[in-house]
Design brief:
The complex is a heterodimer of chains A (196) and B (495). Chain A is an alpha+beta fold and 196 residues long. Chain A is elongated and about 90 Å long. Chain A folds into two domains: 42 residues; 119 residues, Rieske Iron-sulfur Protein (3-layer Sandwich), CATH 2.102.10. Helices cover 19% and strands 26% of the residues of chain A. Chain B is mainly α. Chain B folds into two domains: 338 residues, Cytochrome Bc1 Complex, Chain C (Up-down Bundle); 114 residues, Cytochrome c-like domain (Cytochrome Bc1 Complex, Chain D, domain 2, Orthogonal Bundle), CATH 1.10.760.10. Chain B contains 20 helices and four strands. In chain B, the strands form two sheets. Chain B has a two-stranded antiparallel ribbon with strand order 1-3. The longest helix of chain B has 33 residues. Classes of the chains: A alpha+beta (196), B mainly alpha (495).
Chain lengths: 196, 495
């Protein structure tokens, strides 16, 4: 925008800037000041970046997963697949009901189990178990799985995610704590397969 | 001198912006731009202002906490006087804003406004589209219901597919290992501070560029944009034959913005607020999550992509689209502006519009999803049961009981995931039916382990009756040759 015509105004008057060659004392002080601020910014940036990356760094260090109980084995009769829920181990008081995570427990033959994540291996929607047809079906994009979790139809590239489990003191324990996603099926940091 | 003039000059003596503002308002624009085609940008700005105001009003009540957000929305809807109305305004304002931004973009594209010297205006406009969509997505998350919860799951599943850093990205996006309090808080920060900040900054630059470079002139077929001559030609149009933006052109903007605001109010009053849907409790799995209207087409794309190509496409396609949009003014920065001489541009818009329209329509009807309760709630058409044998009727029971209906429709009711079976006996012979049921294939699960031989026999007997009365079912002609007359297929009991 051009300066409008009219009476001259005080801010139109320019303070002359000396056009000297070389570096004056003030110009150098100004540049030093900038450098000083840059250093302070760098010192400040470290904790800020650490704060922002916190959720990802924690995973690398100690991991989010731990063994937790799904309850006594009597809740899971042989040959049946039942919904179980657990409280996520990493939790705080603000999480409310979002920390209650469901999973499907299949008692294969009374001795061995399969514990499937609720999340479809396609894009994470909640799969439902249909005992009549022995299928898991996903409501989002139509993924379907057989009772052993293997892929039956639809867009998923793999079968359902499975938690590692163990039986102790007549209770079923699973190793859980993290939402399973297709890219996390194999741990890219350590190379170990976290999700069966 | 009136009170207003006195006050005005008192302030202007100190602020000294009056002259500049007046000059800005009265800047000359080409005569033909005082058009109803040039009102969408200002309308988008108006709706954005409405979103800021209603957003602040909602923030007075809303609690961005995973445990409380859903309850606070219920309080807004049902307890706070007119809370429902403010929610409805904000929700409908969001839909209108995305729609108007898209229309504005199409108009600008068809009028060649992205060409020299307005390349940067277009680029900032692309950023504005992206942040507007970002607002729409994060806003949908703040409506913390089942759709929001599982929508975040979809987002996390997509993010996890990024090579190498995928798992870390998921944790960064969710603020932890699962969708919980930290997730909602960070989407709140994005929706309320970060993205609006970007939006305001981009809008400021976008407007400044429109003022500095002048509004795009009405494109005339044959008036070619050349970098050497364009600025002089535009000066001619704007200054010699133009007119002042205020009031000669602006009145249409003002009226259109008013109409849009009125339309938002009407929708808010008539349709009310959006949701919230069910509680964001992951243990309630009887839900079929769906994204909001403007993301339905992505939902449809995700179900139709072949599994092997899905990950590369959902990770690379958005980058390609953005690069194409940003590169457009550099590839086609000169030349013809009029849509009448740019058939490929018009065709591109038509193809994109039809594609998005079809995908959105599919996203609304989700034919790829099993209808989870069809097996227990949708009846078999009476005509398929009348006059049937006991075995065939038992087959109908198997058909319902084994949830075949969730994916296959009869009489246009039931799932659309698999083909409708009203005439399946015309397409498949008895042997083919048995094979398909037992082995599955073609995206159908194999039922061999889930059906007893008796159930399979009954089911196939029922399926063989599914053909029009006057058309014979498909039969295997080679059977009679191979097995002699004794090998004749058991014929249908169709009357």
């Amino acid at each position: 925008m051009s300066v409008p015509a009219g009476r001259p105004r005080p801010d139109d008057e320019k303070v002359p800037v000396p056009k000297e060659t070389g570096m004056t004392r003030r110009a150098m002080l100004f540049k030093l000041g900038l450098l000083f601020n840059g250093l302070v910014a760098a010192v400040l940036a470290a904790p800020v970046v650490r704060f922002l990356l916190g959720p990802a760094i924690r995973e690398r260090k100690s991991g989010y997963e731990s063994w937790l109980s799904l309850g006594p084995l009597e809740q899971f009769p042989p040959g049946q697949t039942r919904l179980a829920t657990f409280r996520n181990p990493v939790v705080n008081s603000l999480d409310g009901e979002t920390a209650d995570i469901p999973c499907w427990v299949r008692n294969v033959d009374g001795h061995s189990f399969q514990v499937f994540a609720i999340n479809c291996a396609h894009l994470g929607c909640p799969v439902r178990w249909f005992p009549q047809s022995n299928l898991f079906m996903c409501p989002c994009h139509g993924g379907a799985y057989y009772q052993d979790g293997s892929l039956a139809a639809g867009p998923p590239e793999r079968g359902l995610f499975q938690y590692s489990y163990k039986v102790e003191d007549g209770k079923l324990f699973i190793k859980a704590g993290e939402m399973p996603t297709p890219g996390r099926a194999a741990n890219t940091v350590t190379g170990e397969s976290r999700w069966v | 001198m009136g009170v207003i003039e006195t006050l005005g000059s008192w302030f202007d003596e100190r602020l000294k912006v009056g002259a500049a503002l007046r000059e800005t308002a009265e800047h000359p624009v080409p005569r033909e731009t005082a058009s109803w085609f040039y009102v969408f940008g200002s309308a988008a700005l108006t709706v954005f202002l409405l979103q800021i105001v209603t957003g602040i009003l909602l923030a007075l009540i809303y609690v961005p906490s995973a445990g409380e957000a859903w309850n606070s929305l219920q309080i807004l809807n049902h307890t706070v006087p007119l809370g429902w109305f403010i929610r409805a305004l904000h929700g409908w304002g969001s839909n209108f804003m995305v729609a108007i931004v898209l229309i504005h973009m199409v108009q600008v594209f068809l009028f060649g406004a992205y060409k020299f010297p307005r390349e940067l205006t277009w680029i900032i406009g692309v950023f504005l589209l992206l942040v507007t969509l970002g607002m729409a997505f994060t806003g949908q998350v703040l409506r913390f219901d089942q759709d929001a919860y599982w929508g975040l799951g979809i987002g996390a599943s997509i993010a996890s597919r990024v090579p190498v850093v995928g798992p870390a990205l998921v944790n960064l996006m969710l603020g932890g290992p699962i969708i919980a309090a930290a997730t909602l808080s960070r989407f709140f920060a994005l929706h309320v501070f970060v993205i609006p900040g970007l939006l305001i900054a981009f809008v400021g630059i976008h407007l400044l560029l429109v003022l500095k470079l002048g509004i795009n002139e009405w494109p005339m077929p044959g008036r070619i944009v050349r970098k050497a001559t364009y600025v002089r030609e535009y000066q001619e149009l704007a200054h010699k034959r133009g007119m002042a933006f205020v009031p000669y052109a602006v009145w249409k903007d003002v009226f259109f913005s008013g109409f849009i605001l009125l339309a938002i109010v009407a929708c808010a009053v008539y349709f009310g607020p959006f949701g919230p849907g069910g509680q964001p409790d992951p243990t309630i799995i009887q839900t079929a999550p769906r994204p909001d209207f403007f993301f339905l087409w992505i939902y449809a794309v995700l179900s139709y992509l072949p599994p092997a190509a899905e990950t590369p496409i959902i990770l690379i396609a958005p980058i390609i689209v953005i690069v194409v949009l940003l590169g457009l003014p550099f590839v086609a920065g000169e030349g013809e502006k009029s849509w009448k001489r740019r058939p490929i541009a018009v065709l591109t818009i038509l193809v994109i519009a039809v594609a998005l329209g079809v995908l959105t329509h599919l996203g609304e009807h989700t034919p790829w999803s099993p209808v989870m309760n069809a097996w227990s709630s949708v009846p078999i058409p009476a005509k398929d049961l009348q006059g049937r044998t006991a075995l065939e009727r038992r087959g109908a029971l198997v058909f319902q009981g084994k949830q075949c209906r969730n994916c296959h429709s009869l009489g246009d009711a039931g799932g659309k995931r698999g083909p409708a079976l009203d005439n399946v006996a015309l397409r498949l012979t008895e042997d083919q039916l048995i094979r398909q049921v037992i082995q599955g294939g073609g995206n159908m699960p194999a039922y061999g382990k889930n059906l007893s031989p008796a159930e399979t026999t009954a089911l196939v007997a029922f399926l063989k009756t599914l053909h029009p009365a006057r058309q014979a079912p498909a039969r295997d002609a080679s059977r009679r040759v191979a097995l002699g007359t004794g090998g004749q297929e058991s014929t249908s009991t169709q009357p």
